[in-house]
Write a structure and sequence with these properties.
Length: about 625
């Protein structure tokens, strides 16, 4: 009780403190809510994993238990084919009569709500998504738990953001905080979760967004340590720093994995397009996909379920070559068909499994051909995992940091950076959209692909203002000013700045007001601005100035020396803002050469040397 009163007193003291601006107080509140979301979603992550084990036990072993089991160890024989079909039917019914939004792998759906719907997700998704995903994975669906928990965390953050009075941007932060806290709670990878928010959800890097998300991810990581097993979720053997020859081959692996990631991305959406052409209702598609999942699961049991054990085995080098080939091929077939059918599940774990197996195959072939190359299979598996994710999602930093955190092999940083960069480059040049953005791009939604600073925040009023404004004395009559205005040939002149005899701001005049029928041309021009003057200073940010223009419904603002000195020094308008944007575009699209290497330039340089020699 005393602790709660202490926190309550501290909260009131911070909120009411004059040391904090309004924006910082809002940031404190959003950060506090993000921590609460992170704590709650950690419990949801534990519940999701327990539900997956519950349905796995029921489906494959006929017992009611949340004990950790591997569906690959089932003894159902050919009957195993039926299990994923039943799961697909249940998920299809839930999508048909519950919410269609449970279909898919989570991240694209969250991105779509951020970009188009002010981050508003229906509250029902917070329980429908984990339940449907647990059924899908628990009946053999080849997915990971990360996609569902990301979608669930995002839905929870969005729901809380709709219950309290906040802005659309703050709701986006809460959505991202919930989504990434869920990922951190599942894998214990807070750094990777923060980068995931930046690269795939927030599309920005600023204190107002990073602080709440970071706190939520730290809370999720703490929840992982408390609710799950401590230590790396995919432990790997000790890896030493590779030599130059090995680093070359790892970079080549990244290039080849980038090509493979392009194929994987295109294959997934080809299969999805194929399902669209089926003459049956979409609610039956997951059951049809379940047939393929069941058949591949019968011949390759390791493809069933989450398969985190597969990732650990690939990193440890415990799998035989034939088992790796089967895992790579059949996991891809099972996952791509299931995902294309529109069932509920995640993409990260399958991509890691496919990429890890691909990396082991590349590593094995390389060691056979070049025995002294220095390539080791655990690191080759890590390269395949991270590069596959980097190429398929183009989340470059997330893919690198995730593998480092999840495996604990921090000596792998340099080869991971080289390989993921290579995969990213291949993906960037050969496919327009990624596995995360293709679906929403087909709906006409463009996702940001750069994180440049906001021009309005980077520039000040003094950087773009007109330093030679047209000033009109308040002693002039309306008729005199109108006569002068009629003689001007500048069609862009829409507003005049009114000043007193000492040049201080008196107001601003819309030129069209001088032609109203109800005015007397002998009256003072100051009568056309009864509200007085409003102004900005040269040091004010352009974003704040634009906000004032919007609030005041004006296209022009006078610029004065300072808040205590109303001497007019310029004027800023929307036209100035447009010109600033045009200048910025020219920096990206206008090609110039400022240093010439033509013979004439060389002659001048030589002449300069000769002149220096004579002076000496």
């Amino acid at each position: 009780m005393r602790i709660s009163l202490l926190f309550k007193s501290l909260y009131k003291a911070l909120i009411n403190s004059p040391l904090f601006s309004y924006q910082k107080k809002r940031l404190f509140i959003i950060s506090l809510v993000s921590v609460i979301i992170g704590a709650f979603i950690s419990l949801v992550a534990k519940l999701l994993v327990s539900l997956i084990y519950l349905f796995t036990n029921i489906s494959f072993f006929g017992k009611v238990s949340i004990e950790k089991v591997n569906p690959a160890n089932n003894e159902l024989g050919p009957l195993v084919i039926i299990v994923p079909v039943i799961g697909g039917l249940i998920v299809g019914v839930m999508a048909r009569y519950g919410s269609k939004a449970i279909r898919g792998h989570g991240i694209p759906e969250a991105m779509e709500q951020i970009l188009t719907n002010q981050s508003k997700i229906h509250p029902s998704l917070a329980w429908l998504k984990p339940l449907s995903s647990a059924i899908s994975i628990g009946t053999g669906g080849p997915f990971g738990a990360e996609g569902p928990i990301i979608a669930t965390g995002g839905a929870l953050g969005s729901t809380i953001g709709q219950l309290i009075r906040i802005t659309g941007h703050e709701r986006k932060i809460l959505l991202a905080a919930g989504a990434t806290a869920g990922m951190s709670a599942i894998f214990g990878t807070p750094f990777a979760a923060i980068f995931l928010a930046i690269e795939l959800l927030l599309f920005e890097f600023s204190a107002r967004s990073i602080i709440p998300v970071a706190l939520a991810c730290i809370t999720g990581a703490a929840g992982h340590r408390f609710l799950f097993e401590p230590g790396p979720v995919f432990p790997s053997p000790v890896i030493s720093s590779p030599g130059n020859m090995a680093l070359f081959f790892y970079s080549l692996f990244g290039l080849l994995t980038g090509i493979a990631s392009v194929f994987v991305t295109k294959a997934v959406y080809f299969i999805e397009d194929s399902f669209e052409k089926l003459p049956v209702h979409w609610a039956l598609w997951p059951a049809i996909g379940g047939i393929v999942v069941g058949i591949t699961g019968y011949y390759a049991p390791r493809t069933l379920g989450v398969g985190y054990e597969n990732i650990t085995d690939l990193l440890s080098g415990n799998l035989a070559f034939k088992a790796v080939v089967f895992l790579c091929a059949f996991k891809f077939i099972s996952w791509s068909v299931a995902l294309g059918s529109g069932t509920s599940g995640g993409t990260l774990a399958p991509l890691l499994t496919i990429g890890g197996a691909w990396g082991v195959l590349l590593g094995t072939a390389t060691v056979k051909l070049f025995p002294d190359c220095g390539v080791i299979l655990p690191l080759a598996a890590m390269i395949g995992m991270s590069a596959m994710f980097a190429g398929a999602s183009r989340a470059l930093l997330t893919s690198i940091i995730f593998i480092l955190e999840a495996s604990g092999a921090f000596n792998a940083l340099l080869p991971l950076l080289a390989a993921c960069s290579a995969a990213y480059i291949v993906s960037f040049f050969f496919i327009e959209n990624t596995i995360m953005t293709e679906k929403i791009a087909r709906r006409g939604i463009n996702t940001p692909d750069n994180y440049e600073p906001d021009l309005l925040e980077r520039l000040c009023v003094k950087d773009i203002m007109n330093h030679q404004p047209v000033l009109v004395s308040v002693e002039n009559s309306i008729g005199e000013v109108r006569e002068w205005f009629n003689e001007q040939k500048d069609n862009s002149l829409t507003h005049l700045v009114l000043v007193d005899t000492s040049g201080r701001l008196s107001g601003i005049l819309n030129c069209m007001d001088m032609y109203a029928n109800s005015i007397d041309i002998d009256d003072s021009v100051s009568l056309l601005n009864p509200g007085g003057g409003y102004s900005v200073t040269p040091e004010m940010s352009l974003k704040r100035a634009i906000g004032m223009m919007s609030d005041l419904q004006t296209e022009v603002l006078p610029v004065v020396k300072g808040s205590n000195d109303q001497t007019v020094v310029g004027v800023v308008s929307f036209r100035n803002v447009i010109n600033a944007y045009q200048t910025q575009q020219e920096e990206h699209h206008v090609y110039t050469r400022n240093i010439s290497l033509k013979r004439r330039g060389i002659k001048i340089l030589l002449h300069g040397k000769k002149l220096i020699s004579m002076l000496n």
